[in-house]
Structures are given as structure tokens and as C-alpha cells.
Amino acid sequence: MAEYIEIYDNRLLAIVSPDAFLQKLANGAVHSEGPVYIHEDDSVVWSDAHGNRLLRWSPTDNVTVLRDPSDYQSGNYRDLEGRIVACSSGLRAIIRREHNGEWQVLVDRYNGKRLNSPNDLVVKSDSTIWFTDPPYGITEPDQGYGGEQEQPGSYVYRFDPATGKIYPVVTDMVHPNGLAFNPNETLLYVSDTAAFNIPDGPHHIRVYEVMDGRWAKNGHVFAVIKPGQPDGLQVDQYGNVFTSSQDSVQVYSTEGSQLGKIRLLETCTNLTFGGKEGNRLFITAGKSLYAIDLNTCGVRL
Questions:
Q1: Among candidate residues 45, 74, 186, 180, the one with its CA nearest the CA of residue 123
Q2: Does residue 193 contact residue 134 with C-beta atoms inside 8 Å?
Q3: Nearest to 26 by CA among 6, 43, 38
Q4: Are the CB atoms for 171 and 182 separated by under 8 Å?
Q5: Which of 4, 57, 66, 300 might form a disulfide with 263, Cβ 3.0–4.6 angstroms?
Q6: Does 1 score more than 80 pLDDT?
């Protein structure tokens, strides 16, 4: 068995082969974050969040720089038209790369006041963008341009690009960070990373019921993550939850039982499924980008 695979529950064997190969694809970032897979050319775009750059890896080109500076771009995703939508902690906005390659701001305010610093996002099957808005781009000098917090808290928002309507769907978390839907979009998982800079702050994942496709209700703690905090999340086709942590990618069953770990030598920040079969997990950790082939696939749009 590979030394970096830890099995706590035999159900993990259906997800990760004991001899699965963990490959480092790239390094050299200041702080790797927010990977998104581009199936057209088998590439991965990810953020060097603290280096203020957007990077791209491909099997043929290795690593290239897509944006420099990137206005402290963090989480990235693709919309239903294949455009990259992203969180800009520097602009305190959700941005989108148009088909002509230009980036535009989609939303940067709620109730007439500036957002904190959007961190991570997902695009739902109805084209709405759900994103987290902790204050890190304001409070941390290497994650944004600073400024004053105008919102009364750190929320999860639902934004509809078609109508421009935005409203908070989760308001009972301290510093929401990563988020993911389950396969049929009836559940929303959200990580809280407040322990990063608040003594005794939460370091857990909460799960909410999605009502009428528009609201997140009845939240409760799904799993407490240690060591460190959970950051980016992914859910596979069976509803298993993959979360970043200080020492690994941790894998949880649908009922919140920890099945095991994929250990890393760097602090894991985020992850995404991709590959030609949809079963390759791309992982950002520390200064690097990793990949490992699994026996399960991600939820594909």
C-alpha cells in the first residue's frame, strides 16, 4: 500500500486504490489555490493566490502564466458555457473570463455595499453562482488590497448572472470558505476556516438542505476537520465528501464518517475532479499542484 494512503474504513478501498500513485505536476507557486479542470485540452487552471497570479498546467506545455497580476484571484469554476468564473479577493468581486479572453466583474456589491473578499464558488445547474465571502482579502496583506469591511458579516451568497440578483443564503457561519453541492444539488456543504486567525474559531464543515433550489436551510455540523482547517471541498458521484486539511485530503462518507486520508507533504488548500474519465483528482497544496487517479468520478456539469 502506498505510504500516503491511510485507510480508516474499508469503504475507502472502493474510492482510492491502496497503490494509487500521487504525482506532483508542478511547483513554484507562492500559495496554490482554486484548481479548475479544462477538458478541452486536459489542462488545469489554478490560482497562485498569494503570488497574485493565475497559472495553467497542461501535459504538453507544463506551467504557463495566464494572468499577472490576477487581482488576488482565488477560487475558480466553469459556467455552463465553459467560461471561467472566479473569486477576486483583490477586487472584492466575482469575475468571469469572456469568450474573447477579457475578464469582467459580474458582481461586487450587496445592498449597495462592497463585498468582503469572495473566496470560493460553485456554479449550480441553473447557472446561478453560489460563493463564500470571508474577510481574508481585507485582513490578510498577502490575499488582497485591504480596505474596510462594509458587510455586517461573512456570508454565502447566491448570485444570478441573468438577472443580477444577489442575496445571502447562509448567514450563520463565521468565515465560510470552500463549498460544494451533492450530486442532485439537494445539499450544500460549506467549510468554516475561522480557526485560521481566530483563537478557538470553528474548523468544521457544515451541511445545509437546499430548498426550492434557491435557499440553504437547517444547517448543522457535518464534520470537524483537524489538523488545521477545511478549505476547498469536492463531492464525488456517490456523495462522498473530499476536503482539504493541514496534512491531507480527507475523505468522508455521506453520513460524515471519515473513511481515510490521502496524505500530502504540504498543506492542502483545494481540489477538483477532472481527467478524460473524470476520475482524476487535482490537488493544490502549498506551492504545488498534484494529481491522483481514483476509482470514483466527480460531479460533472
A1: 180
A2: yes
A3: 43
A4: no
A5: 4
A6: no
Give the number of residues written for the chain.
301
Q: What is the pLDDT of residues 95-126, one digit of tens each?
A: 999 999 999 999 999 999 999 999 999 999 99
d(C-alpha 268, C-alpha 252), whole Å: 16
Q: Which residue pairs, CB below 8 angstroms and at least 24 apart, start in 277-286?
A: 281/234, 281/242, 281/249, 282/25, 282/35, 282/37, 282/44, 282/46, 283/35, 283/244, 283/249, 284/32, 284/33, 284/34, 284/35, 284/46, 284/232, 285/32, 285/244, 286/31, 286/32
Q: What is the four-CA torsion angle of 253, 254, 257, 262, rounded to 10 degrees?
A: 30
Residue 85's DSSP bridge partners are: 77, 96
Q: What is the mean pLDDT of residues 264-274?
A: 97
- For the chain, helix, strand, coil in percent to 5 are 5, 50, 50
Q: Is the peptide bond before 69 cis (omega within 30 degrees of 0)?
A: yes
CA 179 → CA 29, 73, 289, distances in Å? 23, 17, 20
Residue 43: C-alpha distances to residues 30, 114, 175, 274, 293 (Å): 20, 33, 31, 9, 15
